[in-house]
Amino acid sequence: VYPYDTLEKSVDVIIDNADRLEKKVHSLLYLNRVEYLISKDREGVMTNMKEIVERVILNSKVIRPDIVIETELEEVYFDGLEEAWQVTVENIIENALRYAATNIHICLTEEEGLSIANDGPCMSEDRLKVLFKPFEKGQDGKFGLGLSIVSKVVKANNYDVSGENTSDGVIFRINRPKRKNNREKVR
């Protein structure tokens, strides 16, 4: 007796479930690894975010080749380890690809930091409140760890992250910390 009509279909379902569980375990392990990465001595470590974004886009285009990815990228460096920032950008872009209807717009500037917008459906107010909590799944979400990892990495490096609805979709922003200028203008 095969629960899904044939042996082939039943095996396919088992393989799909095994793949899903493997991804879940990988994310859980990475969530624990983030603690280690952010506790490492990273004094003075800077990451070229333009390189990270370009690399992630190149690797992600095969996921949904029908989505147009537009970029405005400046050479910007963020404080923190490259691996952690790469996973952060991967998680946000994978999320954007999951929900986008036709396009994603990525902007990276020294003044504004990093923003990743998509033209997918807006999020409910309830969803916005728990966006970065672990195990909170979106309407088509996988298992709710990606944005939690994003939040951990961003906060550990003293940056701010937010997600909000726009008139035509959703945008995620990672803002550089506001630095106080102690020098007064002398006239």
End-to-end CA span: 87 Å
Q: In this structure, how is the largest beta sheet organized?
A: 5 strands, mixed
**Shape summary:** globular
Rg from C-alpha positions? Answer: 19 Å
Write down how many β-strands occur, each being a DSSP E stretch of 2 or more residues: 7
Helix proportion range: 40-55%
| Order of strands across the main sheet | 2-4-5-7-6
**What does the oligomeric state look like here?**
single chain
What fraction strand? 15-25%
For the residues shown, what is the average pLDDT?
84
Give the ordered list of helices and strands: HEHEEHEEHHEE
Total helical elements: 5
Low-confidence stretches: 181-187
Strand pairing plus helix content: what structural class?
alpha+beta
What do you see in this structure?
This protein is α+β, with helices and mostly antiparallel strands and 187 residues long. The longest helix is centred in the first third of the chain and has 33 residues, at 7-39. Strands 2-4-5-7-6 form a five-stranded mixed beta sheet. Strands 1-3 form a two-stranded antiparallel sheet. The N and C termini lie far apart (87 Å). The chain is 42% helix and 21% strand. The chain contains five helices and seven strands; from the N terminus they run αβαββαββααββ. The model is unreliable at 181-187 (pLDDT under 50).
